[in-house]
Amino acid sequence: MDVRLLKYFLMVTREESISKAAEQLFITQPTLSRQLKQLEDELGVTLFNRGAKKIELTRDGLLLKRRAQEIVHFVEKTKQEFLHNEGELIGEISLGCNDIFNMKFLSQINKTFREKHPLVKFTIYSGSSDFLKERMDLGLFDICMFLEPIDLSEYNFVRLPHKEIWGIMVDEDSPLIQKESVSPEDLIGFPLLFPIREASQNELASWFGDYYSQIDIAATFNILSNTIDMVREKFGIALCLRRQSTTRGLRFIPLAPKLETGAVLAWRKLQDYPPLMLQFIKHLNDFLR
Q: How many domains does the chain fold into?
């Protein structure tokens, strides 16, 4: 499969129009149409439903879009790993991250690394630990921040220095706003927003103990930043980890008894690491020391 055809396909999905995509690619519309037909014939499927105003992806088209993004990303990343500029490190490091307190620590690592190697850039992806691990296993990330517990048997890793503290995020009108901490019984009767990750739910279920059967889970979420507006609109109280940044009109209140979770930075075990990753891993370990 020609990577060039995949890039053409992705441009059409972005523009939702063959004519507009052809303009962006600096080729004629008939040429692009022939290329797309060639791709469909090679795969034996129909990729587009061609409407009057815009084209839409079929189910097979949606699957190819996801795979094409992964393939193109991997090819471009491989090219960058072979770039050299008179001995200076150059290239991209892709990082998977959680929205947690230790993000401050990772930001310091990235900052000090770029001070030494200014031609390096970082690509940051956010998501739950399970989502990040899935993409890490596909080779799409160089290094990931994971919340424990997680299976790290296939990874090298370092533990981050700060424990992540569980608590609730409430709006300023909540009757709980003045509390210094909240216990399981304090949360009975409130609609709760729970993390979608099974390991986190299990930790919280243990913390609630006998009260778990009495709580009201109104929704689940995978990234806290997407849940903040629901808290602000009084849809519910989010059970979450402490964040580095504060959010206007909201307050984080820790749980009591205290509930903490460890975090790690992990990378795949490889026979040979690219020079950029070798230097970053060395910098990470030096920074920790």
A: 3
